[in-house]
Write a structure and sequence with these properties.
By secondary structure, this protein is α+β, with helices and mostly antiparallel strands. The chain has four helices and twelve strands, in the order βαββββαβββαββββα.
Length: 214
Amino acid sequence: MAYDSTTAPTFAAMTLDAPALKKALALAALVIEKRNSIPILATVKAVASAGNLTLIATDLDMCLNVTIPADTDDHGETTLHPAALASTVAKVKGKAALMFDGPQMVFEAGGATIEAKDCLPAYDFPTPSPVLYQGRARLPASVLLAALAPVLSCVSDEETRYYLKGVYFHPYQKTAKDTPHLRFVATDGHRMGLYDLAADWMAGGFIVPTKTCE
């Protein structure tokens, strides 16, 4: 499908920090399925705005948005194949340059240049449905990672038991007088991992997929 004048702006040129881009691409790679029958889902959507570049990745079940600083005043969008960019910025510590105009893209970092003329249209990238929040709660990232570590080894990897492929977050309080806790539970049907964290959790109970926890 060709780009035309009715779509969103598609041109942007910028310089950005290579290590920040490397980290953003690594996060996007965690969301993108390695075997994908839908070509657009093998890409990330790149959205340039004044001072920023946002990379969006989705597998239709979850969506990741990562915004990094970029030296640009342009507003444009395209899709990029993250694997090629990631290998180029892997050992670059300085700046990288990115320019795209619709299906055409030029990327330079560490003396290497990648050119593409077949980027898929950004308007074909799926727009995730809005999430209806039950509530909001905050935890320091280090505390959350420490709580997940003991239970992740018990998560099931069986495709047919999809409801076990994650960690169950839920509020827990043994009695009304006890300290409120956030409980993390994972099981594969044979083993169970359980971790209680003292926290007044107001976001209800839900299963967080393995891909998100990792």
